Amino acid sequence: MAANYWESTQRKFWTFTRQDLAQERKKLEESERSLVNAFPMPDRRHLSIYFSNQLTKMARPLAIRQQAMATAQVYVRRFYTKVEIRRTNPLLVLATALYLACKMEECPQHIRIILAEARHCWDASFNDISKIGECEFTLISELNSQLIVHHPYRSLAELQTQFQLTQEENSLAWSIINDHYLTDLPLLHAPHVIAITALILAVVLKPTQSGYQLHAAGVANALQTLSNVGNARNAEGPGFPPRLQKLIDWLAESSVDIEAVIECTQELISLYHVWDDYQEKAVKDAIAKFVKARD
Amino acid sequence: MFSGYHTKKRVNERYKIVGFISSGTYGRVYKAEGRNGRVGEFAIKKFKPDKEGELQYSGISQSAIREMALCTELSHPNVVHTVEIILEEKCIFIVFEYAEHDLLQIIHHHNQTQRQAIPARTIKSILYQLLQGLLYLHRNWTMHRDLKPANIMVTSAGKVKIGDLGLARLFYKPLHSLFTGDKVVVTIWYRAPELLLGARHYTPAVDLWAVGCIFAELLSLRPIFKGEEAKMDSKKSVPFQRNQMQKIVEILGMPSKERWPLLAAMPEFGQLSSLAAGNPRLHRPQGLENWYQNCLKNNQYPPGSSVDSPGPEGFLLLQQLLEYDPQKRLTAEKALQHPYFTTGEKPSDNCFEGSKIKYPCRRVSSEDNDIRTSSLPGTKRSGLPDDSLIGRPAKRLKEK
Question: Is residue B285 a contact partner of residue B250, using CB atoms and an 8 Å limit?
Fold first, then answer.
């Protein structure tokens, strides 16, 4: 991990305990009680899947890099810890977050291109660059200009060399990192913890499964292995393959917070569970209702 | 947002503008005092809108975004402290701590007013503090890319602070080569040879070259490599800075493949041979050591090591900073461990310690003190334009 994460605004201002995060959100909902009651929202993870799909749709024709997508998703998640979603037009927030993330990640896109793509993808109600420009002010202001985001990809690249991951394992770990942006994990844990989680899952799961959505059962196995890490230190030949043994030994000796890794794994399992029930239309309609009501 | 952007902070409620300090391609800088319980003096940078007279939100420029993000993230005693950022009605204001002096002004005072050299211990302290700030930036993966005397602030307590992160960038895992996106980087006199030779992937070493140039300028009171900038041609391709390269070679001699193994891989390598043709001076370069000895003599620094002279260690440090090969050039970390700093007395963290010289205060023009509605930036004004203290043209080209 680069030395600078420890002094970063991400660590100081945008990493929460689960309790604090729940508290923040509750406060926000309380302040908008009638709005919240009038417009029920789907599971937050379904919302995140929808957001991610919409960003992908917009980003693909522009060939925008994954890192900018990840940054955009983190901006959106941070933003909605401070602003009640029903007070906003989420598609405008998405387009703006992507526009801003591209500038921060050194792959800028012209505001007109972003607007055109947003209108093409969503037939969006906003039709002027000034809407995105204005939303950018709101976004930066709510994020307190803290725009530098540390991602797990860099830690993964370091670990990859250390553990000599195969191409398949590496791309599996990479897609697990992509998936974690659909959860609250980016607000809860340091990027290197996420990277280690992704690495373990990728090595434990035989990357034979195609598609990037993992089976919950596979992850559960991995979890079992993990909780054995503590015992494995003394265990004599529990039958782990050598590469896995090397990883387990390293984990046991490193200062990595195993509890945190287990928590991340559980969060991912539960993501893959709820993913099965995802229906785009339900999310889209829920959003359309409060957007329309305010138009 | 449905209800539009509502500012939470207003610049005029929080600060009283005292006057105008400078302007540049980015916008304008004002001096201000705190209001409503905020104590102290501040420098407020107001960003110019993308297009003049912009009445609409049109998206914030990438360089402004970079500067806002870096200023928020970074915090070190030798980097100008950012107090807050205010977004108010289509304008962006970055509020910095105020510094009474900068190196350009200090050099000018010695050169024009005092007509005597900067005390050796002042120089040592300045350089030591500057390198500590730079080490911090580099450890945080930030290249400054535009170090020059005008961008190095000095407070009245003698604290040196690196300012103007307007061109700074993060350098880990660049998504695109760091060359793309920015046409030109670093004021030409402080530009590293690998940049002049068209390097596509440059490194923090560019900042160390600039530190070398600044060290030389503190010693001699004039820029060591004062080249004339070749302007962009109509095709907007970046021209080879022939004259600047020539100034460097006149003192250091031609770079060689022996000393700089990757030299021949530089895109503009071919230009070097044409540079030498028909210019006999390049074949008999002055040599950095001669330049240094002349400089000590002219500025009456005693020879040999003492508190009153940069001494032979100073030469070695300068030589290792002005090293052609960026891979061999000293890093900020190594420079701080150099004998120049470790022999003799420890560099002070107040660069004015033991000095009786009084430097003039920063010039502030009171003609323009309405930060919200003042005439748009870019309009010619009577205030001091950027870099104008000793009649330098603003060298930085607008970012594309």
Answer: yes
